[in-house]
Amino acid sequence: GIPEYDSLGLFQIGIWNLYQETHNKSMIEQFISSINRSVTWESYYILKNGLIPKDLSVWEDNYQYNFWTQAMDALGLKDTALLYSALNLNNSLELKLENILNETIQKYFYTNDGYAEYVTPTVEFANGKSQLVYTPMTIADSSSLLPIDFGLVPLNSQRAIKTVNYTITQLTRNGGLARFTGDTYHYSNTLYDSSGPMPPWIITTLFLALYYEKTGQYSKALNLMNWSIIHSQHLLLPEAVDPTYGNPLPTTSPLTWSSAMYIIVAINYKEIQKESIDIPLLIIITIIVILAYY
After folding, report:
1. What is the pTM of this model?
2. 127-158: b or e for each residue (b if 16 or more CB lie within 10 Å)?
3. For 116-129, how does the pLDDT look when each residue is reduced to its tens digit (9 = 90+)?
């Protein structure tokens, strides 16, 4: 199968969020054996290389040590440690693994422009000893935003701010954010429904909206939510939008993740009464999303 190891971290994050919502220990305990197997697998690689293995990651097109996957895994281990603490379980291994993985991420992925899309491994030899090091590939990638939203580093830290600003500068297209520099998906021989490369995606644009919310920039978040609605297809959110004309790209519309991300951003909109957001419209969109995918 296609290696997408970000699923481990996302699973762990999801279970911790489920516990926070329900505080139902008996329900959560049925997942512990699965989490333990995940941690055992993670432990083998992190203790050996400081990272979990290469994968195709969120965009399924680049077999590397991708920032998204490594960061989501670190966040998953962090949340697993919190979960185990809440359940009065030993979390020393999870804390250790999260610390090692996060140290590797901060040491090798960060550049002057922000977090690199991925790193490549190299073995260096000096004084008769070998050492595994990683070289960052500085390609702007909007998937770097969501781990920051989730707390990989403080939201107002220089590392977060530089990454966000670099992503905006490099990837803004027609009001939204493209996935990454040079993205030709939707603009190739196999899928050709865009007028050009690097179409803005709904989810990536909403990654930025969530960052704005979490840093108190509600007007900017609202603008991106409205942008998503304006570029919807009868209030159903597509995967991506044409970078020139702004129409929803038809081959992948509607897309469940786009709608789910919109709902996440809407739920996190703390200042909803202080802005001119159309609350009935938000309710209608949510209902339509649920019915569309039932």
Report:
1. 0.90
2. eeeeeeebebbbbbbbbbbbbbbbebbeeeee
3. 999 999 888 877 78
